[in-house]
């Protein structure tokens, strides 16, 4: 009669399902095949998760870090090498920024203080 089931991850799931292909494309562009595999695993896991676990929080924060270029300062990282290949005048740069902003907005709308703290800590680093 009444459906009391509320999807605790609806906001994050909606963002991920709406941007699934873009997130995968951005991951391979910014972090190569290893980042793509991590993103694909995260996308599958979040779609089937019942709640936001500590592991999922860290993996979402890692995806956010990839999209916000948090590791490109480390010249030894794959992310730095991948980033160096991107033409700053390319339209993909704006698309990557919009995708990162969209993920951040979904994280804030989800209102998980631990996840928010993880991305804010990453941004402050």
Topology of this protein?
Blueprint: H1 10-18, H2 20-48, H3 54-67, H4 78-84, H5 91-110, H6 113-124
Helix pairs in contact: 1-2, 1-5, 2-3, 2-4, 3-6
Share of β-strand residues: under 5%
Shape: globular
Low-pLDDT residue intervals, each spanning 5 or more residues: none
- Alpha plus pi helix count: 6
- In sequence order, what are the helices and strands, one letter per element? HHHHHH
Q: How far do the termini sit from each other?
A: 50 Å
DSSP helix fraction: over 70%
Question: Based on helices, strands and strand pairing, what is the structural class?
Answer: mainly alpha
Q: Would you report the number of β strands?
A: 0
* Overall average residue pLDDT: 92
Rg over CA atoms, rounded to whole Å, is 15 Å
Largest sheet: none
């Amino acid at each position: 009669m009444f459906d009391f089931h509320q999807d605790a991850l609806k906001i994050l799931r909606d963002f991920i399902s709406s941007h699934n292909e873009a997130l995968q494309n951005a991951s391979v562009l910014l972090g190569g095949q290893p980042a793509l595999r991590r993103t694909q695993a995260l996308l599958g896991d979040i779609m089937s998760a019942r709640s936001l676990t500590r592991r999922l929080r860290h993996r979402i924060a890692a995806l956010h870090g990839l999209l916000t270029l948090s590791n490109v300062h480390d010249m030894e990282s794959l992310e730095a090498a991948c980033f160096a290949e991107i033409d700053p005048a390319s339209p993909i740069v704006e698309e990557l920024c919009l995708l990162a902003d969209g993920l951040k907005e979904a994280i804030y709308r989800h209102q998980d203080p631990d996840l928010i703290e993880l991305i804010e800590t990453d941004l402050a680093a």
